[in-house]
Specification:
Length: 158
């Protein structure tokens, strides 16, 4: 299998904010798009659907929260539940991608870019989405296989 051409959207689903990133159609570079607040979930879903409609990605790559040992954390169930709601709101395929260390990596990258802690807090989720997406793009370029795993259906285990 070779690299599939088409834009992708990366999402870092947090309890308060959702970081959103996009790739170019050739899957070379992931760039931050925005941060969507989750305080009003119907509004957050509408905002995400608008982004998906505008960018027309071939798939969504959503961070799959796991602990260092690879086990699902409590946050994983919440993120997966919200990912299912995104799936119901759009027909775009979803893949779950390991996101261990992405937020830490995002904070380090933003600190290195001179952002103070308050500035980082507002954009770290978008930067984490960039890292999730960029890692997935690189994986597919290197292996010819899509990154992560298909989103499980309701009855499946995390």
């Amino acid at each position: 299998m070779s690299f599939r051409r088409g834009r992708r959207i990366g999402l870092d689903i947090g309890s308060v904010r959702i970081g959103v990133a996009s790739s170019d159609p050739d899957g070379i570079l992931a760039t931050p798009l925005t941060v969507v607040r989750r305080t009003d979930e119907p509004a957050a879903l509408r905002a995400l659907r608008e982004i998906i409609d505008e960018y027309e990605p071939i798939e969504l790559l959503i961070g799959d929260p796991k602990s260092l040992d690879g086990a699902a954390r409590a946050a994983a169930a919440t993120a997966l539940d919200f990912a299912r709601r995104i799936s119901l709101a759009t027909s775009t395929p979803i893949r779950l991608v390991d996101e261990r260390f992405t937020t830490v990596e995002a904070h380090h990258a933003l600190a290195a870019a001179g952002k103070n802690s308050r500035q980082r807090r507002e954009i770290v989720d978008a930067q984490a989405a960039v890292i999730i997406l960029q890692n997935a793009l690189e994986f597919e370029h290197n292996t010819g296989e899509p990154a992560g795993r298909a989103m499980p259906d309701e009855e499946s285990e995390l």
